[in-house]
């Protein structure tokens, strides 16, 4: 079960949980797909796109269960990133946890 991760503002994620589906953050909606990261990519994604933000969650999703609309496409430096070309159903989410800041300002991913 290869896990991929979505970093999102807590309030936006709470709205998705109520709706039963995550349609995306503003950047996802603008690009036409939901951006995800692998465990190895998540820290850099957080540093680049969420620097200094403390009110975030980290959602883990089983990539194998997302079907053919999950595409692995080149992004930063040509590295392949997972992009989902449909809404994410909340029943596809394996876990969600807070993504706090450490004293040094980096996000605390624990042991993903």
Explain the overall architecture.
There is one protein chain. With 112 residues, the protein is of the alpha+beta class. The protein has a single domain (3-98), classed as ADP-ribosylation fold. The chain contains three helices and eight strands. It has helices at 10-19, 26-31, 39-49, and strands spanning 3-9, 21-22, 34-35, 56-62, 70-74, 80-84, 88-89, 93-98. The strands form three sheets. The protein has a three-stranded antiparallel sheet. Strands 3-6-5 form a three-stranded antiparallel sheet. The protein has a two-stranded antiparallel sheet with strand order 2-7. The longest helix is centred in the middle third of the chain and has 11 residues, at 39-49. 23% of the residues are buried. The mean pLDDT is 95.
Chart the SSEs and their pairings.
Layout (H helix, E strand, L loop, with lengths): L2 E7 H10 L1 E2 L3 H6 L2 E2 L3 H11 L6 E7 L7 E5 L5 E5 L3 E2 L3 E6 L14
Order of helices and strands: EHEHEHEEEEE
Strand order of the largest sheet: 1-4-8
Percent helix, as a range, is: 10-25%
- CATH level 4 superfamily: Protein of unknown function DUF952
Biggest sheet architecture:
3 strands, antiparallel
The first-to-last residue Cα distance is 13 Å
């Amino acid at each position: 079960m290869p896990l991929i991760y979505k970093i999102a503002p807590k309030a936006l994620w709470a709205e998705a949980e109520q709706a039963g589906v995550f349609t995306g953050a503003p950047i996802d909606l603008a690009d036409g797909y939901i951006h995800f990261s692998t465990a190895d990519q998540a820290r850099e994604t957080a540093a680049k796109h969420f620097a200094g933000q403390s009110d975030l969650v980290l959602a883990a999703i089983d990539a194998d269960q997302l079907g053919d609309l999950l595409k692995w496409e080149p992004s930063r430096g040509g590295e392949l990133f997972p992009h989902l070309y449909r809404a994410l159903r909340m029943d596809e989410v394996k876990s969600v946890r807070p993504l706090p800041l450490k004293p040094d300002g980096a996000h605390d991913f624990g042991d993903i």
